[in-house]
Amino acid sequence: MLKIAKYVIYDILRSKVLIAYTLFLLVISFSLFALETDGAKSIVSLLSIVLIIVPLISIIFTTTYFYNSYEFIELLVAQPLARNTILLGEFLGVALSMAATFFIGIGIPVLIYASSSTGMILLLAGIVLTLSFISIAFFASVAMRDKAKGIGLSLLLWFYFSVIYDAIVLAFLFSFSDYPLDRAVIALASLNPIDMARLMVLMKLDISALMGFTGAVYKQFFGSSFGLFYTIGIMLFWITLPLLASVRIFKKKNL
Amino acid sequence: MIEIQKIEKQFGNLSVLKGVDASFNAGNVVSIIGPNGSGKTTLIKCILGMVVPDNGSIQFAGKNILNDYSYRQQLGYMPQIGRYPENMKMGQLFAMMKDLRKSAHVLDEELINEYQLMAMQDKPMRTLSGGTTQKVSAALAFLFNPKVLILDEPTAGLDPLAAEILKAKITKAKEEGKLIIITSHIMSEVEEIADSIMYLYEGKVNFYKTITSLKQETGEEKLGKAIAKIMKSQSHA
Amino acid sequence: MKLRCLFYTLFFSLFCKATTVTLCKDCPVQNFKQALQVIKPYDTLVIKKGTYTCINETIYKPITIIGESLPVLDGKQMDEILVVMSNDVHLFGLAIANSKCGSMKDYAGLRVFKARNVIIENCQLTNTFFGIYLSDSKCITVKNCSGKGAHYGKSDTGNGIHLWKCDSISITGNHLEGHRDGIYLEFAKHCTIESNLCERNFRYGLHFMFSDNDTYSNNTFTGNGTGVAVMYSKGVHMFNNKFLNNWGDAAYGLLLKDMSNGIIKNNIFQNNTIGVTMEGGTNMRFEKNDFVQNGYGLKVMANCRLDTFVLNNFSGNTFDASTNGELKENLFEKNYWDKYEGYDLNHDAIGDIPYRPVSLYSVLVDQMPYAIMLMRSFTIDLLNKAEKNIPSIVPETFIDNKPIMKMIKRR
């Protein structure tokens, strides 16, 4: 598995797409910190990049990479290697390179300019989001044989998690606004990795606003040690579940 | 060596293999022939574990290959069209395969040497011609000294000299007691290297006989004519 | 006010031919009650280090009491501790501790009743129900004192410094914590409250009721239920104060209710659930304040009229502003809003398009509070953008027509 990951990382480094992505993130985050005198505002802008751009790039890059390395996977499948080893090796390779990219592109500027606890949580959220969207991308690519369909499904999933889902939540809250929804809201947030990551950062960034009546509910929940374990558990769930599903499909897949 | 029982495979609505039974033994060269779309490649991929059959079982040296991968230690595969990571250089490809397989067998680098592949080891795989890529595929298949070789259209795309080298290598492997499974459309070539022929037609085994018995039964000297005669007699019946 | 008080001080110093009485464990005068009987008007009582029982003792004479090394007057939780009922009393360096607590009467550590020209300086009040209680008095100075509430952290405690029907009081440099209200003013006029620190008081740091023409400046209010509440008062001036860290449901940096003619200038509102909330404010002027990192910077109710907000900075707030209807006759101009996305083509440092501080999302959150969980969601950003271009739900008149492009630096 580690060997496969190693060759995947070699291959990704040679393709230069990821290097361009790293530079893109570096330029964006450095210019956000340099142009904006107000550090908190830069963090807010970075947050929207972490919540929108990072999942998008993660999912698209992984899907295209998967289809482009189809030959490599075919080659490996005919070798004495277990299929889950092959897929997990691929995942590990992509995950390590994407996480490193994120860490260099956003982590280093944050460490230099805003190494507060908010900055750290932002980095953690970003890395967790990167990993879960790689995992989701693996699911989409393994499920679809056709490259165009696979990328289409990936884009659709990204759009669902970043836009449609919150619109559904809004509609839900609107329809049931007369009921106590504390638990329902936490459950709703758990069903979307982007929402979970967002709430993680909000607990630091907008703590003042969250101390209002309903916000206090979240603060109480996510601030407790149970809430912390819950958050970590849900985020791990979002990394492992799509991956396990894709391993399941891949084991039976015809190449 | 390989026992196949009632293999069935469907892709969507299309039924590709409709209950194939066969048994392949060591020290033989078996040629699987049949028209396009008869299921040759699918059968090979089933043996390789790249395609999982819907029904039936495949045993390799007495063990079911389902959910197993260690038997592929004993397998060398040369695909019809070899596709390799585009950015990888040829030398790196060989190094990687050696690294990944970590085979206990003595490496067989005869083909690498005879095709003089190391002279091109710094070329990325995407820049290689179709023929050279086929040479790489052949060399990889033999590299780990496997007990079973599966070659899908091995000489297609090779120049005559390279094809001769490969055929000689196949004959040598057979003499070493290996099982070689080949698909091919070129009857003269089949006649030259194969012992038995398995004819697949619309997902079923039409016949599976040794070349000698085929020729005897039909009384033809040429394999091509012998097969044509059998086909004709079957369509009459 | 200053002049009047100065006049009294001069008048008092004409009688300064004072003798000194000393109170200590080995002195002829050994208890505080005896000392108060022995001492003559305009004399000085020096109290040496030690603890002296003092249960509801009253000073009827104009005297000076000086504590050396902070002697303790202990009320033993029996009643009030010390009452001043004479003009021209000066108290320096006393520790006053352990008053009775109760809901029937406002027991105080130090009560000043119907007196003028009293100075209380460097005194420490601990474990008292009310700390310093001034009523029907004029020209009193409370300076560099500290107070810690009796039931620290609980709700059944009184106020740190309590003013009732007072005039011309100066409260400076005090530190008050753990009371109900740090400083409370009711019917108190012409008072100056300066450089105090009020923290962790469970209701308000500073509380005005029906108190007109007062000024408070350079104070810090942090971690109180609400920083400062000013209610039913006119002409209160608020300068250079810091309102910090007031968190919770209904927690504000500054709460203004039925106010008029006040000036709020050069203050900082930071890390509050709501920076400033104003209900029924008329003719109020907000100038050069910083609203930083609050949940809501500003909540202005629709019953506010003729108010002016100029040259304030709004940055890092989750929501800049919110209201509950249409604002009429209020002026927002030349404020800096960090969420402003307009441009300045003519380079006059003023944005060319107006800014609406109330976002669609803040209106949504007001109507369905659980929507707070969608904060900073991409979907919400899209909705906000759409609403900004075609306003239909956000109040039409809550608008800054001349938003400035750069944050105003003033410190």
Q: Which secondary structure elements does this structure contain, and how are they paired or packed?
A:
The complex is a heterotrimer of chains A (255), B (237) and C (411).
Chain A: H1 2-15, H2 17-35, H3 39-68, H4 70-77, H5 83-113, H6 117-143, H7 147-175, H8 182-190, H9 193-205, H10 207-210, H11 213-223, H12 225-252
Chain B: E1 2-11, E2 14-24, E3 29-33, H1 40-48, E4 55-60, E5 63-64, E6 75-78, H2 90-101, H3 110-114, H4 130-143, E7 148-152, H5 160-175, E8 179-183, H6 187-193, E9 196-201, E10 204-210, H7 211-218, H8 223-236
Parallel strand pairs in B: 3-8, 3-9, 6-7, 7-8
Antiparallel strand pairs in B: 1-2, 1-4, 4-5, 9-10
Chain C: H1 2-13, E1 20-23, H2 32-38, E2 44-47, E3 51-53, E4 57-59, E5 64-67, E6 72-74, E7 82-84, E8 90-92, E9 95-97, E10 108-113, E11 116-121, E12 124-128, E13 130-135, E14 138-143, E15 146-149, E16 161-172, E17 175-177, E18 181-189, E19 192-194, E20 197-199, E21 204-209, E22 215-217, E23 220-222, E24 226-231, E25 237-239, E26 242-244, E27 252-260, E28 263-265, E29 268-270, E30 274-282, E31 285-287, E32 290-292, E33 296-300, E34 308-310, E35 313-315, E36 319-322, E37 331-333, E38 336-337, H3 360-367, H4 378-389
Parallel strand pairs in C: 1-2, 2-5, 3-6, 4-7, 5-8, 6-9, 7-10, 8-11, 9-12, 10-13, 11-14, 12-15, 13-16, 14-16, 15-17, 16-18, 16-19, 17-20, 18-21, 19-22, 20-23, 21-24, 22-25, 23-26, 24-27, 25-28, 26-29, 27-30, 28-31, 29-32, 30-33, 31-34, 32-35, 33-36, 34-37, 35-38
Counted beta strands of chain A: 0
Largest sheet of chain C: 25 strands, parallel
Helical fraction of chain A? over 70%
| pLDDT averaged over residues of chain A | 88
CATH superfamily of the domain at 2-224 in chain C: Single-stranded right-handed beta-helix, Pectin lyase-like
Number of strands of chain C: 38
Radius of gyration of chain A, taken over Cα atoms and rounded to an integer in Å: 19 Å
**What is the CATH architecture annotation of the domain at 2-224 in chain C?**
3 Solenoid
Task: Give structural notes.
The complex is a heterotrimer of chains A (255), B (237) and C (411). The longest helix of chain A is centred in the middle third of the chain and has 31 residues. Chain A has 255 residues and is mostly helical. Chain A starts with a helix and ends with a helix. Helix content of chain A is 87%, strand content 0%. In chain A, 48% of the residues are buried. Chain A has one domain. Chain B is of the alpha/beta class and 237 residues long. Chain B has a single domain, classed as P-loop containing nucleotide triphosphate hydrolases (Rossmann fold, 3-Layer(aba) Sandwich). Chain B is built from eight helices and ten strands. In chain B, strands 6-7-8-3-9-10 form a six-stranded mixed β-sheet, sandwiched between helices. A four-stranded antiparallel β-sheet of chain B has the order 2-1-4-5, with helices on one face. Chain B starts with a strand and ends with a helix. The mean pLDDT of chain B is 87. With 411 residues, chain C is mainly beta. Chain C has a domain of 223 residues: Pectate Lyase C-like. Chain C has a 25-stranded parallel β-sheet that branches. In chain C, strands 3-6-9-12-15-17-20-23-26-29-32-35-38 form a 13-stranded parallel β-sheet, with no helix packed on it. The radius of gyration of chain C is 25 Å and the shape is elongated. The model of chain C has no long low-confidence stretch (mean pLDDT 89). At the A-C interface, α3, α7, α8, α9 and α10 of A face α4 of C.
